[in-house]
Amino acid sequence: MDYKKLYDSKLISAEKAASFVKSGDWVDFGWTANTPAAVDAALAKRLPELEDVRFRGGILLKEPEIFKIENPAAHLSWNSWHMGGIERRAIAAGFSFYAPIRYSELPRYYRESADEINVAVFQVSPMDAHGFFNFGPSASHLSEVCDRAKLLIVEVNENMPRCLGGSREGAHISKVDYIVEGGNPPLGELAGGGEPSEVDAAVARQIVAQIPDGACLQLGIGGMPNAVGKLIAASDLKDLGVHTEMYVDAFVDIAAEGKITGRRKNIDYGRQVYAFAAGTKKLYDYLNDNPECMSASVEYTNDIRSISALDNFISINNAVDIDLFGQVNAESAGTRNISGAGGQLDFVLGAYLSKGGKSFICLSSTFMNKKTGQLESRIRPTLSEGSIVTDTRANVHYIVTEHGCVNLKGLTSWQKAEALISVAHPDFRESLIAEAEKMHIWKRSSKR
After folding, report:
1. Angle, CA of 345, 342 and 209, to the nearest 5°
2. How many other CB atoms are found less than 10 A from the CB of residue 175?
3. Taking a C-beta distance cutoff of 8 angstroms, is the pair 208, 235 a contact?
4. Rg of the chain, C-alpha, whole Å
5. Residue-wise pLDDT tens digits, 62-97
6. Given the residues 245, 299, 331, 418, the one annotated as active site
7. Minimal CA–CA distance to 268: which of 229, 212, 228, 313?
């Protein structure tokens, strides 16, 4: 087959691509770095003529042009699989909504349950000699999006890294309806984080002390997992593996120090496996054509069976707050949505099933309430009204603050409360004990 000829026959302008979108359509805008640019700009010009266009995507790295039109709520809704700062602002503006789901379930959802996808459009790498467009750093669930879309449009960007994998990391030109050449804008970036704060570093030191040589790592998004990554890069650890939902800059730093070999991985020997990546240009350059890195479906990376098959699996994630029953909220501040379920629970469960595995939920012991100007505890008697339970009290393993690390697995309610209070900020411990007594989860002990 003459792929170049087929390519030319499907090539259209961004404006033509935007013309296919109609009022009431479901439009899939890809995922993180794959969010379209040229078609986004063209759609922003067309949207004032339309109403109730329903976009889907997640973790936006740049504010889309469609968000910048006058009164976007009158013309569109943004339905996100995982929220970031851009999407939180759109929620406040009244046109963005979170779609709660375990991230690992997305491929099946698209195969079996998704609303009709009228148009799917997202950025890809240039077509290769075999007619494939690579999804770049977002294998994730995009193969299933392609299968379900009534109209599939790819926007080619020469800056999109070609990320190798096992399967489902690209789409063949025979499946693509139209192609847009988008002018090759820089990819959206997610800052790798500055120098860790003293609190971040204190948390990181406690976690790194429990990581053995040959461990397999999963790092979540945020300052504390990034601080752990920096400390690992500077440590004496060796022969580490990677199997993660999100690939972040910290992994590049760890690999640069020779700490990652994957030689002790029970599956995917020698490969760094991930569902999507978001970071700086350093990260995208590292992933490009790197055979050591394996871009895979989130259905595989986040499968508890995949995670648990890897010995000494170490999962490190953030939380917003936790209550004295051990319920972890990693998604909201009361009813205000912050992020999403993602894959945190999958990795909490999978890591515990791994031989020698551990999952760590880390958080600072306090935060400054910007509305009141008061310092508040992240360890609370009960979660705030409307807060989301990401990890249930039955599933949590290790909780880490700058004041200590406690293993909650198997503890009774009073032991759990006592352990959590022991890692709370000292200024709040007495009030937490008093609340625990009221809730009948405090047993008088030598500590009181």
Report:
1. 55
2. 16
3. yes
4. 23
5. 999 999 999 999 999 999 999 989 999 999 999 999
6. 245
7. 313
CB 134 within 8 A of CB 170: yes
- What token pair was written down for 336? 């205000």
- Give the separation between CA 283 and CA 221, rounded to whole angstroms: 14
Q: HEC string of the chain?
A: CCHHHHHHHHECCHHHHHHCCCCCCEEECCCHHHCCCHHHHHHHHHHHHCCCEEEEECCCCCCCHHHHCCCHHHCEEEEECCCCHHHHHHHHCCCEEECCCCHHHHHHHHHHCCCCECEEEEEECCCCCCCEEECCCCCECHHHHHHHECCEEEEECCCCCCCCECCCCEEECCCCCEEEECCCCCCCCCCCCCCCCHHHHHHHHHHHCCCCCCCEEEECCCHHHHHHHHHHHCCCCCCEEEEEEEECHHHHHHHHCCCECCCCCCCCCCCEEEEEECCCHHHHHHHCCCCCEEECEHHHHCCHHHHHCCCCEEEEEECCEEECCCCEECCEECCEECCCCCCHHHHHHHHHHCCCCEEEEECCCEEEECCCCEEEECEECCCCCCCCCCECCCCCCEEEECCEEEECCCCCHHHHHHHHHHCCCHHHHHHHHHHHHHCCCCCCCCCC
- pLDDT value at residue 197: 87
Taken in order 297, 165, 350, 98, the sign of the CA dihedral is negative
Walking along the chain (448 residues) 10 residues at a time, the average pLDDT comes out as: 95 98 97 97 98 97 97 97 93 95 95 90 98 97 97 98 92 98 94 79 94 96 82 95 96 96 97 96 97 97 98 96 97 90 96 98 93 93 95 97 97 97 97 96 71
| Under 8 Å between Cβ of 436 and 448 | no
Residue 245: active-site member: yes
From residue 159, give the alpha-carbon distance in Å to each of 99, 112, 176, 287, 290.
Answer: 30, 33, 20, 12, 15
In the chain, the amino acid numbered 88 is R
Q: What is the tens place of the pLDDT at every residue in 266-317?
A: 999 999 999 999 999 999 999 999 999 999 999 999 999 999 999 999 999 9
- Residue 271's identity, in one-letter code, is R
